[in-house]
Amino acid sequence: MDVLKRNNVKVFGQGSQPMVFAHGFGCGQHMWQHIWPAFENEYKIVLFDYVGSGSSDINAYNAERYNSLNGYAQDVLDICHQLDLRNCIFVGHSVSCMIGLLTSVKEPDLFESLVLIGPSARYIDDNEYTGGFQQSDIEELLVTMEKNYIGWANFLAPAIMQNSDRPELGAELTESFCSTDPVIAKQFAQVTFLSDNRRDLINVKHPTLILQCSQDIIAPVQVGEYLHQQMPRSVYRLMQATGHCPHLSAPEEALKLMKEFLVL
User: Fold this and answer.
1) Per-residue b/e over 38-62, b at no fewer than 16 CB within 10 Å?
2) What digits encode the pLDDT tens for the residues 75-110?
3) Which residue range is the domain that position 31 belongs to?
4) pLDDT grade for 210, boundaries at 50, 70 and 90
5) Which of 49, 73, 135, 209 is an S-S bond match for 56, by CB 3.0 to 4.6 Å?
6) pTM to 2 decimals?
7) CATH number for the domain including 25?
8) Could you tell me if 186 and 149 are in contact, meaning their C-beta atoms sit under 8 angstroms apart?
9) Closest to 159 (Cα-Cα) out of 94, 243, 239
10) Stretch 125-137: mean pLDDT, rounded?
11) What band does 264 get if pLDDT is binned at 50, 70 and 90?
12) Tally of structural domains, the chain
């Protein structure tokens, strides 16, 4: 299968070093619209949609392959191989942070550094670890998705986005959620929220920027701090931005911190 068509891959930019942008759950490459243009003069910009998201080829979706984050990591590897990419800067949002992390551990030579926006290694509280959710919270979330996906999306997307003074942001995320196939979305959510990648953090060898929002119901501050403690080569930046999508709600702040990191 043509990987570039399968994952709706788009390549822009004047530079030679690749910058690969990976979207979060229920989203697509369009969510990077305020970020990637700032880098197109210096880098080769690579945008894509995971299979089942955005404008990817939904016929390529395989429930067995995408029953773990490793299936999505394979999407990233396939794209890098198809385009013969090396020395990439990986920019991931939300669940894509762990997908990129797994990818970098599998084939470290493909990457130079990682930029993780709103990452979480585990969403469920566990002993002394704070993930932000109880097991029962996640179970209830998945049941609600199955019973009334559109209602779930209309309720949760604005809560994830926050910034209630700009309702158009929540509406954009709601529209993105609602355009995703409900069956695929539920499996992706299950894989995302039940994952535990804490043991993988120590294996990351690349310089990594962790962008943590001040108020984020999906990835609270304790999560970002935990990742920073576990990843020896990480840089941690607590943003003034609130919500879980600073690349949409506060792109200027996100860009400033990204550019500072990339010249280190």
Assistant:
1) bbeeebbbbbbbbbbbbebbeebbe
2) 999 999 999 999 999 999 999 999 999 999 999 999
3) 3-262
4) very high
5) 49
6) 0.95
7) 3.40.50.1820
8) yes
9) 243
10) 94
11) low
12) 1
Q: Which of 154, 19, 162 is nearest to 92 (CA)?
A: 19
Residue 4 in tokens: 């570039």
| H or E stretch covering 209 | strand 208-212
Catalytic positions, please? Answer: 94, 216, 244
In the DSSP assignment, the letter for residue 52 is T
Distance separating alpha carbons of residues 47 and 183, to the nearest angstrom: 24
pLDDT of residue 178 exceeding 80: no
The amino acid at 200: D
Buried b (16+ CB within 10 A) or exposed e, 114-141: bbbbbbbbbbbeeeeebbbbeeeebeeb
Structure tokens at 223: 């999560």
> CA 27, CA 157: separation in Å to the nearest integer?
11
The C-alpha atoms of residue 145 and residue 175 are separated, in whole angstroms, by: 15
**CA distances (Å), 190 to each of 139, 236, 251, 264, in order?**
9, 28, 29, 37
d(C-alpha 143, C-alpha 123), whole Å: 17
In the numeric block, which tokens belong to residue 86? 């090396």
Tokens of 59: 């016929």
The confidence score (pLDDT) of residue 170 equals: 85
Residue 111 has phi, psi (to 5 degrees) of -125, 150
Write down the residue that tokens 């700009």 correspond to.
Answer: 166
Confidence of residue 1 (pLDDT cuts 50, 70, 90): low
Amino acid at 43: Y
